[in-house]
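Deliverable D5.2: sample structural annotation.
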Amino acid sequence: MFTDRDVYLDQLVSRVSTARCIDGGGLGPLGHTGVVARVVSGQFFLIDKGAPDEDDSTYSACYRVGHSRVVALTRDQLADSSTAVVGPAARWRLDNSTTVTPLRRTTLQHLVAACGPNYDTLLDNCWNGVERMMARANRRGSTTDDDADGSSDDSLLDGPMPWQAKLAFGVGAAVGALAGFGALFASRGGHR
């Protein structure tokens, strides 16, 4: 059992939602994100990556490994995506469109392992951690226990394509389309 400031990572997760930081951390859709996991007991925990260490003391319970952390939340610290007005204590807005019920035995430890301890602004940031945690929660498979460190035989690479790869794919497709259009235009210009 892993503990640090009263966070027990072996708790079973019943729901996982993406969450956006309300009080800053970026511009609009480019803001800081994490996931909020609701465990079987009804408690809420935020798992995010890249938050400053100083922020940890503002939560009642915290576990940190590398640049990832798990913090205990109260319902007052959460706002639903449909709520226009948020309470003064709300710090995270849930995105209900991405709420999932785990399809296999998932614990907080599994989600922390999927998030990963390392941080890189371009290649392994909070968005990448969220994608991997949501992929872990969505993963189909056996209901047997995974390894104690949160890993399993399944590759996390079988999950969704990272946002950087989607961007590169989109740019490549656009460049290819423009090159094809340019070649067609050039060939029609030469055959008057």
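Annotation notes: The first helix runs from residue 108 to 115. The CA atoms of residues 179 and 185 lie 10 Å apart.
The annotation will be released with the project's public dataset once the embargo ends.
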